[in-house]
Design goal:
By secondary structure, the chain is an all-alpha fold. It has helices at about 5-25, 30-55, 75-85. It binds zinc ion.
Amino acid sequence: MDEILGQVLRSAVRERLDVLSELADRADASSLLSVARSELPRLTAGWRALLTAHEADEKGNCPECSGRRRPTKAPCSVWESAYEHLIAGALAPRPARHQRPAHALQPATPVP
Ligand SMILES: [Zn+2]
């Protein structure tokens, strides 16, 4: 993927996330219900596809995150992020990533 296409892709995804956040913050109840019914299945399907790509291989490594010379043990940072956002973060609202202090963005365990 070239750099321009990558920027377009990232921008489109960020804009979509912004729209969904804005809807969650400001939409009326009936609009929220409609958005939830259409978007939640898409979001869960997206998480499932992403997590499937990051499932451990027969050696216990993530095939997506591992390089030729440097394997990455599963669960990788994608699974850790999924846990953080879907399980741990589900109980209490957290500030958006861009609003968290820089030290909070560091991984809990350093990658070897
Ligand atoms: Zn991975």
